[in-house]
Amino acid sequence: MNLSETVFVLPPQNPTHTANLRIFTPGRELPFAGHPTVGTAIALAERAHANHGGDIDLVSVLDERVGPVRCAVRLRQQKASFAEFDLPRKSQQIVLPLDKADIANALSLKITEVGFENHVPSIWSAGVPFLLVPVHDVGAAERLEFDLQLWEKMVPFVDGALASAFVYCRGAVNHTAKFHARMFPVGMGIVEDPATGAAVAALSGAIHRFDQLPDGHHPIIIEQGVEMGRPSFIHLHIDIDGGEIANARIGGQAVRVATGILEI
């Protein structure tokens, strides 16, 4: 479909679930993806309740290759609908050797611009692995130039595929966001992604690890896609109990931009 991701909606095998999803980029199928989950949950809810005149709150369960994903959907009149889901897997760090100089070179940045505070490059996965690259500030994130060939030469294989780059920093263009991010996929057939829920899911583990979040509830907004002219705001909620992540949720808004019929 020449979009970042295309979702094919199939009947669920479990009759108590809402649907079975298969998610594809132009390059390959994904076991899990965040904003396709948000968009599909909202699209299915709006279709099922098209004749309802008021606000609606509902829960759906979408089966993805990573497992069932539980989504809470809020349909609102005259406003963009919102959906959030519990992470199907907690973010786990994958410890592999990484060269900071090689990472900086692949991003066309100085080595001193890679990392901030306690944050260092690391690989994390909540279903899809990403090499998370902290950079000094928003200026560095805006200025970087991603070199795919250099990246492919130095990035490690994780689960049989090269890890994509998720670059992030503290601070943001929009004052409501706490982090600014960019995502450069490898092997997916796209140059840059405006919103990557699976990467933010992975980021939840890094934020907890490097920021040492105290027990309690931590709401965090990550902005992404600004440099593309397609700004998105990804809502991440992390619950810490006993020094560990007890639960994490990701959410965002989605609106319908086109409707059509394909004849195959």
Short description:
Belongs to the PhzF family. The protein has helices at residues 34-48, 100-106, 138-143, 148-154, 197-211, and strands at residues 6-10, 19-24, 29-30, 56-64, 67-75, 81-86, 92-94, 122-125, 129-134, 157-158, 161-162, 164-170, 179-184, 216-224, 232-241, 244-254. With 264 residues, it is α+β, with helices and mostly antiparallel strands.
Can you tell me the CATH architecture of the largest domain? Roll
Distance between the termini: 13 Å
Strand content: 35-45%
Total of helices: 5
CATH C-level category of the largest domain: Alpha Beta
Q: Tell me the domain tally.
A: 2
Q: Rg, please? A: 18 Å
CATH-defined superfamily of the largest domain:
Diaminopimelate Epimerase, Chain A, domain 1
What is the mean predicted local confidence, pLDDT? 94
Largest sheet: 14 strands, mixed
Order of helices and strands: EEEHEEEEHEEHHEEEEHEEE
Number of strands: 16
* CATH topology assignment of the largest domain: Diaminopimelate Epimerase, Chain A, domain 1
Helix content: 10-25%
Shape field: globular
Structural class: alpha+beta
Oligomer: single chain
